[in-house]
Specification:
126 residues; alpha/beta; Rossmann fold; 45% helix
């Protein structure tokens, strides 16, 4: 998983829970600078992974996740890639609506479980 800023804090708990509950291990890579984006330290781990997931609070279209995906493709990544991002809409000012649009720890956990089930690492819950 590759993320930045507040999303690193959001992503930590789902990664920890999935390891404890389902024995699903994930690297959590946090970039400290978005521009220029330096992925050199992350690329070896990402290229060796079967699945890379980005998490961001901005809408996923043409954002951080798209840039990471492009860089991975240019470096020869052949695994599964997914983006967890805000819904494609303006970010609301009201906290109650913000929780619907932005990724949450629970939505991150659900997406990681879905990806693991698709990969066959976990069985779907009945």
């Amino acid at each position: 998983m590759i993320t930045y800023g507040r999303c690193a804090t959001l992503a930590w708990e789902p990664v920890r829970q999935l390891f404890l509950e389902r024995e699903l291990a994930a690297d959590l890579c946090v970039v400290s600078q978005l521009s220029p984006l330096d992925l050199d330290g992350i690329l070896p781990s990402a290229l060796a992974s079967e699945c890379v997931v980005t998490v961001e609070e901005a809408p996923g279209e043409a954002g951080f996740g798209a840039e990471v995906a492009a860089r991975l493709a240019e470096a020869g990544f052949r695994g599964r890639f997914a983006r967890i991002a805000a819904a494609a809409s303006p970010i609301p000012a009201a906290k109650s609506l913000e929780d619907v649009v932005l990724p949450t720890a629970e939505s991150i956990k659900r997406e990681l479980e879905r990806l693991a089930v698709e990969k066959g690492a976990l069985t779907a819950r009945g």
